[in-house]
What does this fold into?
Amino acid sequence: MKDRKISSEKLNFIVAVCAILISAASFYATYLQADAANKQVKAMTMPLLQFGSGNWDETDKENQLTFSLNNAGAGAALIKNVAFYYKNTKYLSLEKFMEACCDPEYSQFLDKMRNRSDKTDSFSEKGGFPMTRPIDNSVLVGGGKNEFFQMVLSQQNEKFWRKLNKERFHLKIKVCFCSLLDDCYITKENGVATPVDQCL
It folds into this structure.
């Protein structure tokens, strides 16, 4: 009887241990499933911003300087702010960057455009004046592109155009943006997004 009692106690202990292990395994499996689902949702909503520049418009077959932000991710990017870095110095606007990189050509170009007697086409893209779009506090959908600066080469802007075309290779930008899940990131290099608590 004693041996049977001991065997029953051992059996009950083994059953209890097995129940605990099964519960732990079930909890761990649920955790892994929830974690995988969370990662999948993040992957489906995470933006991936890339900065690009070029000097040729393939569609119109003409020399055109272009600065653009591309969203290579699946989710929309809520762009909070953008900073421009030229030769390791920070500028808070595109205009300040252009003053730093391209004066006196930039200022001379602006003066020329303001003082033109024939203004019929002077403040249009084809007339050589830069076309810009806002980027701070804007939304860029997944797979979308924002060409926030465009300037066709013309007689009016040739000196400035060529100077900017040369100096654009020294330009880097830092973008702070958030996903639709309110996860925020800073992108300094193409494809490298560093998580941050919030965009200041």
Remarks:
- The chain is about 35% helix and 30% strand.
